Amino acid sequence: MRLILAHDHDFDGWRRAARALALAGVPPEQTVWSVGAGAGDAPEPPAGASFTVPRRVMQLAETAIQATDPDRFALLYTLVWRVHGGERQLLDDAADPLMQRLQSMAELVRRDSPGGRLEALAQDASVCRRCPLWQPPTQTVFGEGPVDARLMLVGEQPGDMEDLAGRPFVGPAGQVLDRALAEAGIDRGSVYVTNAVKHFKFEPRGKRRIHATPDQSEIEVCRFWLDQERALIKPALTVLLGGSAARAVLGRAVTISRERGRPIPLAGGQAFVTVHPSYLLRLPDEAAKAREYAAFVSDLRAAKALSQPA
What is the mean pLDDT of residues 184-190? Predict the structure, then answer.
């Protein structure tokens, strides 16, 4: 029996055909799968027949069908045939050759997807030895957020709390950022947040670790990771929080007051310069702090508008 799918990743077409075949009792060895034009020979499912397989089968199929292996359609139908026939334990049998092959396909797809490549990039960065900054801190702090984010926020470097938690912007500056994002109508979960430098640079002072500004050479060395993050995320707008972030992305010294709040052309998108939220924490005067915080929220609102599809 010949089954023809509309395209290489036609999951809906494969699912309909697999259901009809299983309900009609057509074994895998009697099927031939291909991609192209034509209706194929898929049978009509018997009237009133029921068809159920565990959700895990469909989840595996949704991923593995994106592989390039020419046998993937037939192998996935074999999985459906066996599980529908009662072999539900197959899903937990790591030694079964069919499961090994399908799981291997799915893993390759996940690894080659943007999310998989970002995860691999973070893993590579975790053992980075490109500059001496890796030695004193607890760990590398990589970026986080959706791989399809239209808005990317770039700060300077992780602080003490970020170094301990392994996540960017979770300390006092991060709390200011979260509040400002919310007031600007931006869901933090929708943006990708990272730093120009991935390790916490500090000076020990008793039991405390005091922030030290990364120098130009450290920013340039760590730009290797930031460039790859930007290449994977492809944000419509990259918000540069402070001078170090601006230097890392633009490759030059930036005067915040001169370039703040206007779009700057970048390859594949735009940049937008504003202050780092830690700047707001350092202001001693409450009136100035309130005024600058309002300006920061205004910048984020403008950034949100610039990041929207045309």
Answer: 96
